[in-house]
Amino acid sequence: MSVWVQLAYLIAAILFILALKGLSSPKNARNGNLLGALGALVATVAVFFSGIGTNNLPVILIAIAVGSVVGIIASRRVKMTAMPQLVALFNGVGGGAAALISVIEFLHGGGESIPALIATVFTVVIGAISFSGSIITFLKLQELMTSRPVVIPAGRWVTILVAVLTVVAAVWLVISPMTWLLIVLLVLALFFGVLFVLPVGGADVPIVISLLNAFTGLSVAASGYVLDNVLLIVAGTLVGASGTVLTSLMAKAMGRPLTSTLFGAFSAKAVTAAGSGEDRPVRSAGPNDVAIMLGFASKVILVPGYGLAVAQAQSTLRELADLLTERGVTVDYAIHPVAGRMPGHMNVLLAEASVPYEQLKEMDEINPEFSSTDVVLVVGANDVVNPAARSDKSAPIYGMPILDVDAAHQVVFLKRSMRPGFAGIENELLFDPKTTLLFGDAKDSLTKVVAALKTT
Amino acid sequence: MSVWVQLAYLIAAILFILALKGLSSPKNARNGNLLGALGALVATVAVFFSGIGTNNLPVILIAIAVGSVVGIIASRRVKMTAMPQLVALFNGVGGGAAALISVIEFLHGGGESIPALIATVFTVVIGAISFSGSIITFLKLQELMTSRPVVIPAGRWVTILVAVLTVVAAVWLVISPMTWLLIVLLVLALFFGVLFVLPVGGADVPIVISLLNAFTGLSVAASGYVLDNVLLIVAGTLVGASGTVLTSLMAKAMGRPLTSTLFGAFSAKAVTAAGSGEDRPVRSAGPNDVAIMLGFASKVILVPGYGLAVAQAQSTLRELADLLTERGVTVDYAIHPVAGRMPGHMNVLLAEASVPYEQLKEMDEINPEFSSTDVVLVVGANDVVNPAARSDKSAPIYGMPILDVDAAHQVVFLKRSMRPGFAGIENELLFDPKTTLLFGDAKDSLTKVVAALKTT
Amino acid sequence: MSPEIGLLTIFILSIFVGFEVVSKVSTVLHTPLMSGANAIHGIVLIGGIIVTAQSESVGVTILGVIAILLGAINLVGGFVVTDRMLEMFKPRAKTPAKEDSR
Amino acid sequence: MSPEIGLLTIFILSIFVGFEVVSKVSTVLHTPLMSGANAIHGIVLIGGIIVTAQSESVGVTILGVIAILLGAINLVGGFVVTDRMLEMFKPRAKTPAKEDSR
Ligand SMILES: NC(=O)c1ccc[n+]([C@@H]2O[C@H](COP(=O)([O-])OP(=O)(O)OC[C@H]3O[C@@H](n4cnc5c(N)ncnc54)[C@H](OP(=O)(O)O)[C@@H]3O)[C@@H](O)[C@H]2O)c1
Ligand SMILES: NC(=O)c1ccc[n+]([C@@H]2O[C@H](COP(=O)([O-])OP(=O)(O)OC[C@H]3O[C@@H](n4cnc5c(N)ncnc54)[C@H](OP(=O)(O)O)[C@@H]3O)[C@@H](O)[C@H]2O)c1
After folding, report:
1. A127-157 pLDDT, tens per residue?
2. Cα distance between residue B218 and residue B128, in whole Å
3. Domain of D63?
4. Choosing from B204, B332, B383, B404, which is the catalytic residue?
5. Does ipTM top 0.95?
6. Any residues with CB less than 8 A from the CB of B183 and at least 6 apart, and which?
7. Distance (Å) from the C-alpha of residue C1 to the closest C-alpha of chain A?
8. Closest residue of chain D to B58, computed from CA coordinates
9. What's the A449 CA to ligand 1 centre distance in angstroms?
């Protein structure tokens, strides 16, 4: 391979690092992503000058073109809310590609040295897990299958059994490379990927996607070792390492250990508790009352949550905020880091309704403000304002930082019922004397409040 | 070289990375340093198994032993306040070692390939600059020569000339490797190092040490290339890169661009302005008055600065703080990041007087407190409390974050005169009606205040 | 330096870079960062190109073409979707300033 | 991969690691960090050992021994003095906690 190609690879690797660096800072995120794309372009051009054979050149070019077009169309057409599952799908196909490449290397007798053979087998296993696991996460998020944790009878034991069988087959394959065994291994790994993701609750899926993303990174790194390609090693390892960090950061932001996410413990609990509805008195009100409270306040904070996304009420919320601002009310949005079902969910949602970025206040920034706020309007949020996170050690969200909504003078909740949120626990704040509830779908309620406000 | 030795080198490199990582966090700093030492040990043992010749083994071992003992004794004996110059000296000898190694490689005809020859010449030049530059910084800090910026007539032109000559000699040497030319180059580089550091004011020296430290790192990396030793490449590059970051962080913490430090502009200005002493009225008081003010306050903040270090008054200050605490006064120390003459100067100084770490408050933490403070006692600090940093765009410290001492009810300065501090600019706060001055050496003044307080 | 150790060194340094570079990311950027990282591993595409270009049997070529297809979808789609996400996140002057002052 | 490119890759990755790893350091630790980094480059000692062990002339041996001496002073002294400095900085529970919450 010529030195120039290797230099191009090195430049691509540097661009990938800069991409990750950029993506970690709000200011440079978009440029970072473009740098990454540039790196990919450099590498893809370079590979054709690396003295690879000229067999199949036309099909190769066609395949690249078709893949690119499919990728572009899928990414452009997808609705904002469906992005997580698209990322999952992309991740899966990447893992699949890595696995296939190693299969091909294996068929070519790529296992001349033991380390290379180990790397080949590793890629096949991890790539296949990532592939099938990602497909399941896609199906869950796309609601093509239930997003509830799927509990197979004796599921844990089956999973462990398949895991053991996979390891055995992998070791055996390293010892005696045989094609039929490779196929068995492939099937086992695919099956394991499915079992691995099935018990995860739909809302935990972002964490799992991130983990599978790290997996794919590692399998790409291993396939780089097999192909003696430094760029694949560096890029794959970067993704593997940063994906691991990211997964643990995500789990931390939701205030619970990774293990419980993976084994569905948390989600299972949520399902159980979700039915509990006590008969304690609450104060509910109509849209007119809420409109009056808001209209005559001097400072209002809006707290959006998952329900806003469900009701697709972002534009209506913005309309309400605009009306209030016109009346001279100070209005801010309080964005909890894990409100909704994916990190940045609220930012994306409100950006869709063109809410100016300056009005979105992060948790640390807004928390001191609540005590001087007249009315907090909580739209379809629950866990992120639940004081149990501060006080109740047994609550699954205990320790998660929350928005200090209970410090405000008055709190209004827009929700459909007394049902709890994602974590499945009662919210004491709903029963607080200063709390008012407006039952109903968030979009309906907001529309009514807006109408009432216009006549107030 | 056996695989085991290379693995040992890799482990050493990992330990060095972990060392830097540890040293960047207060919690792990000390363990980080120990990891670094462990890495050095691993590598030094490994090198003897790397199939080097057995010539001179006894002298080698003796040299290592002697060097280690000298290093240990010097580090153990040095006074806390003299540590910066010791670090400078250590840095210099490291640069010298790198340069010598490359000289030897050159004499061995190490310049078989052009890249190796370039690396050799690079190491010689940078190592020599780092060596002579560090020696000058040592002499300055140790006050074996003036710590003022030394201004040679037409100094800048001489420096540029020497720089150009050095580059010419280096290029020539790469083209035709001759021993006499190497010696000329060595002399030129040493000379350049001297010229480079001479115009830097004594107080800017920490920044220059950090820069030379990065230089040495780079020269070690280059010598690693010459010797085909990955560990030296990794370790040297790590130090080069982190040293560069650190240098710019240091310069930033002092609120001015690196370039002005290096070319002595700032220091020169300081010298000029230092004479200016206006005849405006100030309020001065005696030790008794100050003792009464402090003794009957309910909240006091102590602001230590460079003058505390000059007067070596840290224990007396602590005594005062203890007395006040006994009387029920709330006492805190406000530590500005660049108070004194090296980062962490105040921490080291007060730690020497065993001030409990919890009482030391960093700037961000203490600034909101000043407005509720009765008396702030500023002991030998000036620039770090100068409001000109906020308001006066022409001041050299403009933009540097300062301690908001002027928000307190009363301010007492302990200093010897009306002379300005390091930056050489007038401090308006001295003329403020709420300010009281107690003139005299900080140690004397504090002793008197303590005595007065005991009888109050 | 043996090539094996060289690759190992590169591998380990890459781990450190990967860890450090993202460890300061703010929660808001978790999803785009994940998506961007996801795009980066689509570079496995070039692996697909290499093996397919060397392939001499139809079976292998078919597998290779599938790998290329999947890799290209991952790579191109990944960057495009990340860009679309980030369009939503207009830069906010305050956050970086805050970071600087630490 | 050619060895030259391998070394270059290692060099560049090390730059990134060096940059990233210290970029979050608090001002208080500037001096110890500088001192610790300073100690690390004392590892040039092993370069001195290598060239001296191969030396066959007295002149070179003398230069080599000087290099070893200087390197050992840098290495050993550097770590010891850093440790002494850090003895002064007792850990403060609050600062890291703050960092975690960001
Ligand atoms: N952001 C992430 O990355 C992420 C990822 C996975 C999990 N999570 C978890 O998700 C939770 C997020 O908290 P959150 O406060 O945003 O949501 P939440 O706690 O799940 O609460 C959502 C609330 O919205 C209400 N709601 C649902 N549909 C509605 C509609 N159409 N109209 C009005 N209200 C509606 C629900 O009550 P009703 O049914 O009574 O209407 C529910 O109480 C956290 O526990 C977090 O850990 C977050
Ligand atoms: N920390 C670092 O890393 C570092 C490194 C280089 C430069 N610097 C710079 O150094 C400055 C530090 O600020 P600072 O406020 O600590 O110091 P400063 O501004 O230099 O002021 C020191 C004050 O102490 C007084 N003083 C000196 N000796 C004294 C004694 N024996 N007794 C009582 N008072 C005495 C001096 O006034 P009299 O002469 O009237 O007594 C002077 O006003 C900043 O400008 C910073 O940028 C810092």
Report:
1. 999 999 999 999 888 877 766 667 777 777 8
2. 12
3. 42-86
4. B383
5. no
6. none
7. 16
8. D53
9. 21
